[in-house]
Amino acid sequence: MSAQVSLWSIGPSVYLPSLLFGIGQGAIAPVVVLSARELGASVATASLVVAMLGVGQIIGDLPAGMLAVRIGEQRAMLVAAAATVGALVLCIMANSVWVLAIGIGMVGTAASVWGLARHAYLTEVIPYAQRARALSTLGGTHRVGMFAGPFIGALVMSGMGTDGGYWVHVATAVLAAGLLVLLPAVPSPSPRSGHDVSRESTLDVVRRHLPVLRTLGMGALLVGAARASRQVVIPLWGDHIGLDAATTSLIFGLSGAVDMLLFYPAGLVMDRLGRRWVAVPSMLVLGLSYVLLPLTHSVATLAAVSMVMGLGNGMGSGIIMTIGSDISPAGSRATFLGAWRLCADVGNGAGPVLISAVTAAAALGPAILSMGAVAALAALGMGYWIPRYGGSPRE
After folding, report:
1. How does DSSP classify residue 339?
2. What pLDDT is recorded for position 270?
3. What pLDDT was estimated at residue 265?
4. Which among 85, 135, 264, 387 could bridge 318 via Cys, Cβ 3.0 to 4.6 Å?
5. Cα–Cα nearest to 155, from 169, 173, 168
6. DSSP characters for 90-143?
7. How many CB atoms lie within 10 A of CB 51?
8. What is the pLDDT of residue 142?
């Protein structure tokens, strides 16, 4: 077994950099669509630009696991922070939709490396009895960032335009990297698992765990699609009913406010009652919000439904990371988690693509409703495939 530590003893060094990184991601989340629109993109094309974030994550998932093993968790995160800054500068300088799309894809790849490194580390060092709380707190720091980021972004954008959101992320990525270097080093997991990973290829790990990846992994894919789509539909629907960028950003932030309140209760329920008690209700509430969204026609009604959307998403804080950790093999965690996160990230990319396709074929309203159906399928899949553990998971 690895040398395990308590959740709170490593809190500042683990969670503060991730909080800053999350603030940056929150700052750019509502403005990517708007930046694409400013460059002349149609609604369908703007959705594809947002989808590039998911495409970048897909590209990065499998290499991220091996990178974390080869150079270590902290160095992998520093590489991710540096790559994020470069990608954001490209977004700011973009003079065409496709240059913006490339920059957003690079942001997604860097975020994949960052997230995988933290996920693998906490899986290894936190005891199983506290695992869901540790990982939901990691998800919660992202949600706190997604709440604060749009407000900070809206403030900066009032003087700099949509580029202000990207500059906020540049600043937070640099600060996060600084904290990684300056804060006390986190305890290292046992070297045993890292040595095992280095001897087994990614392809071998995927082949060995293909049965779970093609069943429970499909549930993770559907969850990823349902979750990622909310970052598209709120700004697009706000634009559809005539709201400006700053107002849309504030509504996005209100959704994040509800989202962030539930991360620790979600982890506690998962640790005490089981993963299914969080996964299924989360997707049902999220699906309901997609059904209600096309009925909104004002700031107040859009804000109300966006908060229901935040409630559903927040209820599931950390669920994908926790399930992935539960089923990950002790000898090749980082490599397996790269494949597991690939399942969810394929969904992250597919959700906005589906919205784009249905919007192009029909209209934005039916596209949003289609995501309600995806969320319902996610609830059914996770309810059926999540393992029922009698005690600790297999190690």
Report:
1. H
2. 94
3. 92
4. 135
5. 168
6. HHHH--SHHHHHHHHHHHHHHHHHHHHHHHHHHHHHS-HHHHHHHHHHHHHHHH
7. 26
8. 82
Q: What is the arithmetic mean of pLDDT over 267-291?
A: 94
Instruction: Confirm if 333 and 120 have CB atoms less than 8 A apart.
Output: yes
Contacting residues for 303 by C-beta, under 8 A, at least 6 apart: 251, 254
Q: Where are the alpha helices (DSSP H) in the chain?
A: 11-28, 32-38, 43-71, 73-93, 97-125, 128-160, 163-182, 191-199, 202-208, 210-213, 216-240, 245-260, 263-273, 276-292, 299-315, 319-327, 333-361, 364-385
Q: Residue 207 — pLDDT band, cuts 50, 70, 90?
A: confident
pTM over 0.85: no
> CA angle at residue 307 from 147 to 227, to 5 degrees?
75
- Measured CA to CA, the distance from residue 175 to residue 160 in angstroms comes to 21
What is the Cα–Cα distance from 324 to 219, expressed in whole angstroms? 12
Amino acid at 374: V
* Residue type for position 350: A
> What mean pLDDT comes out for the span 332-357?
86
> Which domains can be identified in the chain, with CATH numbers?
11-186+194-385 (1.20.1250.20)
- Nearest Cα to 2, choosing from 134, 123, 132? 123
Share of residues in the chain with pLDDT > 70 (%): 92
Tell me the longest C-alpha to C-alpha distance in the chain: 57
CB of 319 closer than 8 Å to CB of 270:
yes
Phi-psi region at 298: left, alpha or beta (left = phi > 0; alpha = psi -120 to 50):
beta
Are 47 and 356 in contact by the 8 Å Cβ rule? The answer is yes
Mean pLDDT calculated for residue range 335-362: 87
